[in-house]
Design goal:
HATPase_C_sf; Sensor_HK_TwoCompSys; 5 strands; alpha+beta; 10 helices; Sig_transdc_His_kin_sub3_dim/P; kinase
Amino acid sequence: MTTLESHIVDDTAWLEQAIRQAGAILDEIKCVDLSVETTPSVSDFLPDQLSSEIGETRASHGVHPAESLRAATILFDIVLRELHLSDHADVELTVALSRALHRAIMRRIGVASVSYASLLLEKVHSSHLAERHRMARELHDRAAHAIGVGLQNLQLHDIYVGGQPELSARKLETARVALGEALHTVRALSAELGSALGADRLEVALRKYLAISVSPAIKVKFTVAGDDGVVPAPFAEELYLVLREAVRNSLLHGDPGQIEIAVDIVDGHFNGVVRDDGTGFDVTRVLREGSGVGLTSMRERVELLGGSLKVVSGNTGTVVSVWVHLPGGPS
């Protein structure tokens, strides 16, 4: 008996999909005229509902197409074995059957892969769109508001400067603080907009962001173990955005006194942890209410890489953990 260690067989719904797909493949083989040799055509790759559904389902749950290929390979072996083809079987019939089975399987793999990729591209687009909307809100709600307060107090300073010098001085100081906050916000957003790593590696990019965005009043501890040069550029970019978002959320909502960022790259795996000693939040409630746009974006980015994200938060602070298996690394 063949045993398949796969996420597909671990989930009842996915396993049911796989069984339906296997049945559809066998039904197709029954109708094939094995005496007629055919070549693939465009119609062979037209989408079917079940294959598209499988591709979308596995993409939305972070199941890589490689799992489908593994399952397909085992199905191919099982079908040929169950047909009891012996050494004395008709060679031409065996070859024709093998080709028909391979064609039926690969057509469905192709359709599912297209659906898989399409859903991932849609997620990437949505994630980038949400990021732009967030930055627009930051500019409007924080930078523009602070500039407005500063300008208003400068106007009041002009009014009071002649007859009420003490009040005028307070208005000038208020304007200075407000414009300083606006400048800090604009600089932080500028650093985020320049998020592409470019020639920088992950560690360098994160250090630059921390230097610009974190107040000197907050203690920062950042460590990297392993060679971040082994992280492929597309992975490094997404992982940078995830860790940056974890730090940004801590600064905006956690009121921390200390933030620790630890990156560990070993044996083809990336482990990143962002820990703070802030006020924390109710993770379940935030996800249920849909108010944690940043948290959702982080989770989607990690899932696109085939990894996992864990967030634990409470009165003693928040811990965000990221795990990703890097391409080319040992399984």
